[in-house]
Write a structure and sequence with these properties.
Keywords: Methyltransferase, S-adenosyl-L-methionine, Transferase
InterPro entries: COMT-like, COMT_C, SAM-dependent_MTases_sf
Number of domains: 1
Helix content: 25-40%
Protein name: Trans-resveratrol di-O-methyltransferase
Organism: Ananas comosus (Pineapple)
CATH topology: Rossmann fold
Radius of gyration: 14 Å
Number of helices: 3
Shape: globular
GO biological process, one term: methylation
Number of strands: 5
CATH architecture: 3-Layer(aba) Sandwich
Oligomer: single chain
Distance between the termini: 29 Å
Strand content: 15-25%
Length: 118
Amino acid sequence: MISHSSIQWTLHDWSDEDCVKILKRCKDAVPPKEKGGKVIIIDMVMTSRESEHFKSEETQLFFDMLLMVLTPGKERNEKEWSKLFTDAGYKEYKIVNALGVRSVIENVGSNVLLETDA
């Protein structure tokens, strides 16, 4: 097992389905937080007009259109990132908008799968 996983400018290249698969693999490969494990993602988080980071919206939209043409991926907003983490079985995550158009997204809870009514 590895102690952490860092994914930079990668998940936006993939479909939601493939991102969930990638995140599940990371969860399987990285030990729980209690044992020093952590998954860190550096990627774009689309903002809304109400956000303080609205100034970068044009750049975000440009990247989103570029990805639609070149890959099956897309730029995602916070709600879409939340769904990916939930679908991959992560309990908690946090997003820090601190790197221009990029954000740091990390799991902050245990890597244990969520219980669902399936």
